[in-house]
């Protein structure tokens, strides 16, 4: 694509808008971190980095970039896994992490208004003090809410509470042309024209830059309790999940894990997990307002699991055990990463009753391609994370095997009528697979929407499709 | 707009596709019902009506209409209130009511796959027999699910369970060009490109024709119980609602009603309501799996209401009273309609803590314009239904007053940062008000999306914007 390169005149213009020189970096002053995200292999340095502070600054920058055909990539904390925030055409990188103010909590409408750079962990801390609850719970708590909105982040509580899109009531957005629009608001329902708010969520920073978000809160459940349930094998564990969902006791989370991942987490944390003697585990969380209410729920589910062949049911009714379990679960990604030289990931989502089929197939692939694969994930919503480990493979062999394993896995995903990404997004890393998974007609509709919002294709170009 | 008129050649082509003459009507054979919906004033006869049976038929018709620039209007049961299904440019009307098969219930993934013409009441009956639950609950049970999807219908259970969009997992859609696409599926989460499924829901048949829907089901709550709570006045009733929402006991429904509407319903049904001695009422519903669970919830809420000045709390723990209350609530619209010569409606949604302000303003307007207004609605989600009654007014005076009252109400809606429609959609009737409520930039984005999907502007043209 034919984009304008940044020159001195552009820098002068940017400085005239930003005024504070400390927030503009170019050339050699740019930190190398801005060239990549948490996982994806692609690296590219931006030509200029701007740490923006206000909607108006972003609007002026976008207007200029639109008129001058300069590519702009928005970036939060850089914790993405698929390259969405990598500035592959150079240009301007807009760092939104300094827009990190919580603007308002409205306890009558149960909403929280935030700037995009607020971290997920700070939202949690802030609202829980007020006895309120923001349910979306992706593993990475140091992500920004802007990043969560851009990928429609899911997380562990999705089984009961849904995903980020379900908790975004309203957005302020700067369009690629620099215009500022508001979508939704504090209202609960809306049938007033096309669902642009829902479209913006999950668009990976390609349709607009979120500058303010009104989030939906719930009353904070007073009690939380988990069950760790060892099974003889993964198949038995996972085939119990549809039965749990059908029971009337919907857990907050239903995770599956295997011994080798638990062992990696123990090693990473230097702490023992409550149990690692079985091949496979389900980890269930329940929340509610009283212990009695939760007990009634989990007793039914515990009984069901034992009937389905579980070895035992460990109840984490003390805070230390609860923390031991979930802190281990929280570091799975990092623990696997620390256990190999390099890795790549798959984040497919399949119908809930196909999870066992997919995981069985992953184990077949491990043998077929002689490569280590590690998996864990959200059994309750069919969203699986599979990691492909390089270990001691040479670069050549690694690249070849990686491609073959990926091809096989995404083929299986299509066969099971799943989708490419459950929560991490498409970015760069998964473009070829989205291309195989969606019809050309569907992809063309997406391209049409992109050019409606961004006629000069300057906002985060080259991503998704 | 410059559309082709239907001629004999077109009819011949249509008959070559449909083959069954009994499903094609033209000229004088068209039933007058097809010219209007349930409420909106605009009437227009289509040139030809086709009772379609299959996706393939619709695809072929659309391809032909696209190539020949013939306008096509999809229609379900015609229970809409804003004119979305009125064929204002004539052309082809596609009646989908004969596509009324329930195709599959998947008890492992908890999904129901249906054709668009299945009635909401038939879905309810079907899944409840299986101990399953489809939560969206608009007042009009004889609407088709296709119609519900087209307006993103809400209904009374939205407080706890959300709206139609939250229960649509996947769609098969025929595009205006005749191409067939699938969006979503049985998967629970999805971050794989733009949210076209969410965009299609609520697009009022302007972006595509839904030919199949995969709906999300829940386990059926075993017990339901309601509270009818009389208050001295509406202000006291409605200002209690944010307190209820903040408590940890989220009701399924929070409706408000006033004596005059209850009296109209009594007259319409020829049956007494449990109580009509107070000016204002809240009607709350609770559901759960045991009586004890529900009791704990409603006891807290009952106490709260009494503290806030409620006269009493009537508990409907027997089936007859439960039915008496909700059957009255179910006929409010018809009862008001039967009580006047003609009427029009407003379906605004405002932030929950602004409901009292809006209703107070409605009462001021009644005096200001000397016209009867009746209102009821979903206090729990801020979605209000206000009816403007013609009574004995002459046509001239009625039109003038109607316009003035509407202008005032929508001005108030904007002032309170609400939106034009909470659940009925925009159609024709509310176009001018959407135009005032959304920014020109936002409307242009919607127009751009429309022309991406429908370059020849033949599918339900002239609606929404």
Automatic annotation (TrEMBL), chains A, B:
It comes from the Bacteria. Residues 42-220 form the FAD-binding PCMH-type domain. The keyword Oxidoreductase applies. The keyword Flavoprotein applies. Keywords: FAD, Flavoprotein, Oxidoreductase. GO terms for molecular function: FAD binding; oxidoreductase activity. Its cofactor is FAD. It holds the Pfam family FAD-oxidase_C. This is Glycolate oxidase.
């Amino acid at each position: 694509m034919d984009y304008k390169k940044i020159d001195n005149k552009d820098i002068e213009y940017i400085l005239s808008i930003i005024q504070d020189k400390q927030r503009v970096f170019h050339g050699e002053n740019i930190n190398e971190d801005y060239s990549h995200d948490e996982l994806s292999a692609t690296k590219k340095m931006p030509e200029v980095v701007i740490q923006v502070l206000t909607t108006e600054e972003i609007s002026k920058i976008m207007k200029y970039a639109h008129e001058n055909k300069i590519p702009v990539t928005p970036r939060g904390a850089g914790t993405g896994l698929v390259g969405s925030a990598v500035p592959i055409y150079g240009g301007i990188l807009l760092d939104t992490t300094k827009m990190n103010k919580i603007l308002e909590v409205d306890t009558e409408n149960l909403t929280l208004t935030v700037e995009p750079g607020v971290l997920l962990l700070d939202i949690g801390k802030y609202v829980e003090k007020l006895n309120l609850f923001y349910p979306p719970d992706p593993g990475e708590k140091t992500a920004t809410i802007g990043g969560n909105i851009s990928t429609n982040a899911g997380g562990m509580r999705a089984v009961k509470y849904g995903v980020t899109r379900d908790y975004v009531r309203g957005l302020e957005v700067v369009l690629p042309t620099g215009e500022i629009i508001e979508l939704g608001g504090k209202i609960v329902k809306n049938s007033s024209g096309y669902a642009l708010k829902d479209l913006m969520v999950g668009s990976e920073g390609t349709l607009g830059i979120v500058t303010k978000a009104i989030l939906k809160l719930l009353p904070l459940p007073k009690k939380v309790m988990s069950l760790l349930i060892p099974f003889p094998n993964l198949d038995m564990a996972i085939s119990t999940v549809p039965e749990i969902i059908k029971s009337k006791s919907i857990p907050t989370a239903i995770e599956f894990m295997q011994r080798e991942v638990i062992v990696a987490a123990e090693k990473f944390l230097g702490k023992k997990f409550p149990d690692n003697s079985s091949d496979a585990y389900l980890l269930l969380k329940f929340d509610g307002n009283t212990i009695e209410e939760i007990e009634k729920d989990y007793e039914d589910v515990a009984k069901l699991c034992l009937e389905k062949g579980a070895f035992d049911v460990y109840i984490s009714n003390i805070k230390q055990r609860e923390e031991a379990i979930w802190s281990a679960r929280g570091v799975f990604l990092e623990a696997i990463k620390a256990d190999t030289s390099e890795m790549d990931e798959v984040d497919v989502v399949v119908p809930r009753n196909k999870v066992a089929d997919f995981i069985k197939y992953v184990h077949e692939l491990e043998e077929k391609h002689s490569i280590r694969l590690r998996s864990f994930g959200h059994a309750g919503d069919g969203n699986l994370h599979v990691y492909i480990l390089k270990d001691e493979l040479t670069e050549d062999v690694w690249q070849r095997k990686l491609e073959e394993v990926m091809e096989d896995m995404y083929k299986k995903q299509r066969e099971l009528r799943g989708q490419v990404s459950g929560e991490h997004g498409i970015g760069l890393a998964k473009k070829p697979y989205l291309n195989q998974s969606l019809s050309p007609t569907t992809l063309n509709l997406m391209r049409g929407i992109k050019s409606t919002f961004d006629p000069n294709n300057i906002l985060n170009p080259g991503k998704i499709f």
